[in-house]
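To assess whether ligand presence alters the predicted conformation, the chain was also submitted together with adenosine-5'-diphosphate. Input:
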Amino acid sequence: MSVAGQVPHGTSHRTPVALDAVTKVYGSGEGEVRALDGISLQLPAGSFTAMMGPSGSGKSTLMHCAAGLDAPTSGTVTLAGRPLAGMSEDQLTELRREHVAFVFQSYNLIPTLTVTQNVALPMILAGRAPDRARLDHAIERVGLASRRSHLPGRLSGGQQQRVAIARAIASAAEVLFADEPTGALDSGTAALVLDLLRQSARESGQTVMMTTHDPVAASYADTAIFLVDGRVTDRIDRPAPEAVARRLANLSSARPVRV
Ligand code: ADP
């Protein structure tokens, strides 16, 4: 897929996120939980993927392993072209600072910083001088130009989530992980946020991995991938909400597939 517009720094023709035969086992003996059971997955540059599945199916564990926040028990993870195995915590932190952005259900904004300061934070943490034009552009793109000097507490939940997305856009991170980003939003506000995530992939070439329970949210993605008991059981390209809802209802009878 050709990507128009700004291409994030450090991006070349490589797979931004790749997992190969990843397993994650918590505990041992009787209490052992196989949260991920042989996941192989590649997310192409500029793609928007929705991870779906029932509660406990492994979506969060998968995202944490893909982002290097958690280490798999076996298998390999490659993030922004680099294999994570053997990296120190410092190296992982630096890789995430340079190449990864996060959007969480809980927004994760600093309450004492203004909108602009929150958006600038990843650049400051990465030791880069905040680029004013890039900050302004990201804040305008999410429709918050008139709120740039407000504190998060003066914004609605939807506006706070748009600040979190502006932060991800401004960071120009190669990979954007969004964990239930619309879980706390009404449907109208959720649509705005999902549109922004789709634009991040289409226009800025960011690779977006989103977890969601919501078939409508998944329909904004290029691909929906379904997890059951830590295995990928299905995928739908260009997912329509009805098709996703039907597939979710039938998940218990699904068999593992490789994607
Ligand atoms: P989802 O995000 O789809 O709800 P999770 O990835 O949170 O699923 O969980 C997958 C499985 O792993 C569940 O059975 C859960 O109880 C288990 N699990 C997740 N994190 C831990 C942990 N830190 N310790 C023990 N078990 C865990």
